[in-house]
Amino acid sequence: MTDQTPAEPTEEELSEQTRVRLAKRDRLIDSGAGAYPVSLPITTTIPAVRAKYPNLETDAVTGDIVGLAGRVVHLRNTGKLCFVSLQSGDGERIQAMISLAEVGEESLAAWKDLVDLGDHLFVTGEVISSRRGELSVMATDWKIASKAVRPLPNLHSELNEETRVRQRYLDLISREAARANVRSRALAVSSLRTTFANHGYIEVETPMLQTIHGGASARPFVTHSNAFDTELFLRIAPELFLKRAVVGGIERVFEINRNFRNEGADSTHSPEFAMLEAYQAYGDYHQMADLTQEMIQNAAFAISGSHVVTWADGTTFDFGGEWDRISMYESLNEASGWSITVDTPLDELKQKADALGIEVGQPTPGKYVEELWEHFVKGGLERPTFVMDFPVDTSPLVRDHRSKTGLVEKWDLYVRGFELATGYSELVDPVIQRERFVEQAILASKGDPEAMRLDEEFLRALEHGMPPTGGMGMGIDRLLMALTGLGIRETILFPLVK
């Protein structure tokens, strides 16, 4: 009897196994059976059969003849009767039995010669229950659906993280948690779209290739268009185009798509990531905070059936209830014991930062305040918390605060100590917006690679009149981090790796 569940093979053994499998592929092709048929007479699926017969008695027969396919994940050849476990894409499994009495001597011999772990296999036969009570298909015929010429890893041991990330297909084959991550992401994104639809939002798509990068403070990827013979940028944000849509009368608009930022990569940042941005005419940052809380709570419910989610490590996190809203300056002063205001001199802020070993690349008062706030407050924000009212010099696209001089109407949402989303009362005055862009251009001329460029086309749109508007943005990958407790490389199906 042979049971193909070997230990993890060496590179030399992998090469030898591939050579043997390639020879089997050739024999399949030469025999006329084929190693990669274009279609098969499939009548049902493994999950459907398991759902139809959840409690079949031992040794039962159904008379139900099915044709189904799956990947071979276990194989046991025992003389006149062979057993194979087939796995569907969602991880469901069923046993198939290949017997001399049912398929004949020639077919059984071919089975033992040609079938390996990892192959996709089609079987036709009756649904039965084995002597051990296992739901099975007693095959009357079988066929290779796709010959695997490279062996699977040992499915009885954990893949290392490097393999999981670089060869995600193996992760999906071998680990239920990996498949669950894909389903969770799909459920969350579907829930977001449903919430937007319920609020009358329209989904649009805006350019990935842009002649001027804007909408965020970030270093862009630069490319070149041969057709137009011009420098182009992969977008760092869709904001300036979505605002054009609001100017044009699409008063509730959103987009879920990719952003690209030529910056560092770590457990919460990826150079390529999925982003949600939304804008609502006649809204403000308070309304966008309400909407964001509703969206995230709905997404949590879509995944777990509750506002309480269970993370990968088994701990739980509650997204329910009303979320706190705190002032950036007030929370900084409370945590530090200082009395920092928007009028605190730059030199004093620098001294405080230097004493803590905090470095600021392009020093402005607002950047020092934000860095000091992160040092004292950020790490302690476990529960979902909206941090309100930011310095004006760090937020060039945000409306001045209606009652607090030197601040803008902006919030950042923090969950588990990291930033998940941001929201604004949008700056719609084209004159002030031009002044802010000029200030950004000065920073760029001084060497700030993240400063925005002056965008005349966007200013032209604003000059046609943009209504009072609230806006928000949220990383989809980070949303999944918050809902699952995983790092960003686990929430992205195929992350960029070096």
Automatic annotation (TrEMBL):
Positions annotated to bind Mg(2+) 2: E419
GO biological process, one term: lysyl-tRNA aminoacylation
Cofactor(s) the record lists: Mg(2+)
Reaction catalysed by this enzyme: tRNA(Lys) + L-lysine + ATP = L-lysyl-tRNA(Lys) + AMP + diphosphate
Listed GO CC annotations: cytosol
Cofactor mode of binding and number, as noted: Binds 3 Mg(2+) ions per subunit.
Keyword Transmembrane: no
GO molecular function: ATP binding; lysine-tRNA ligase activity; magnesium ion binding; tRNA binding
Keywords annotated in UniProt: Aminoacyl-tRNA synthetase, ATP-binding, Cytoplasm, Ligase, Magnesium, Metal-binding, Nucleotide-binding, Protein biosynthesis
Location, primary (coarse class): cytoplasm
UniProt-listed HAMAP family: Lys_tRNA_synth_class2 (MF_00252)
Protein name per the record: Lysine--tRNA ligase
Species of origin: Lacisediminihabitans changchengi
